[in-house]
Fold this sequence. Notes:
membrane
Amino acid sequence: MVVDGGVGxxxxxxxxxxxxGLLAFQGFNHFTSADAMTGYAEANGLPAPRLGVLGSGAxxxxxxxxxxxxxxxxxxxxxxxxxxxxxxxxxxxxxxxxEDQRQSEQTAFIKNVELFAGALVxxxxxxxxxxxxxxxxxx
Length: 139
């Protein structure tokens, strides 16, 4: 990992801010759109759907900010990877969706698999050297 403040470190900072910031923003939306998301979670058979929506929002916010800021990034990335691994096939089971919803569920499933892969990359990187331009707590 580049720690000298060069172009690689700037690109990595940009990647962290975009990846983590957008996940934190999605998590924040779980709080501002809790009613709509609770209905969706309930329709997918999630037990305690409101708690699931709020809990998943907290995971996304904490994990996203951890990656973006470099605060306990291994924990943040692991939390995000675990969350995405569990939630993706439950909430976006496109193979069981009605025909009119199959394409949008498949798109959401693929997006989550891509995010899972990104979280794994950040997890591996967090287990290495300290990150440039990071708070570096927990590294």
